[in-house]
Design goal:
The chain contains four helices and three strands. It is an alpha+beta fold. The chain has a single domain, classed as Aminopeptidase (3-Layer(aba) Sandwich). It has a three-stranded mixed sheet with strand order 2-1-3. The longest helix has 17 residues, at 104-120. The radius of gyration is 14 Å and the shape is globular. It starts with a strand and ends with a helix.
Length: 122
Amino acid sequence: GSVVASYPYDDSPTHRPTGVYSKSADDEVFRYLAKAYASHHPIMRTGKPNCPAEEGETFPDGITNGAQWYDVEGGMQDYNYVWANCFEITLELSCCKYPPTSELPKEWENNRESLLAFIEKV
């Protein structure tokens, strides 16, 4: 896990494991939506999730193009965009995939304003 808003495309023509910006036709819209979420999240907006074993990982403005981060061939986000015209972003909300129940109130507080800002974009 991490703390970042990722947007299409997750797959790239070269299928290099990382570092390829795979721009969609709606790249500006996706960046706008991702920033709308990230800019209201106290950790995400810093661009420095500081996850164990990935302490040096950074994401400018708390967002990333999926394939720039790591290439995912056949992912749901890309499939839904291409075949169903769904504008989806992927939200990585925690360094821990399954946070303990005791941390859920904190996670809610970290994400509440971001969720509201994102919903307002509808």
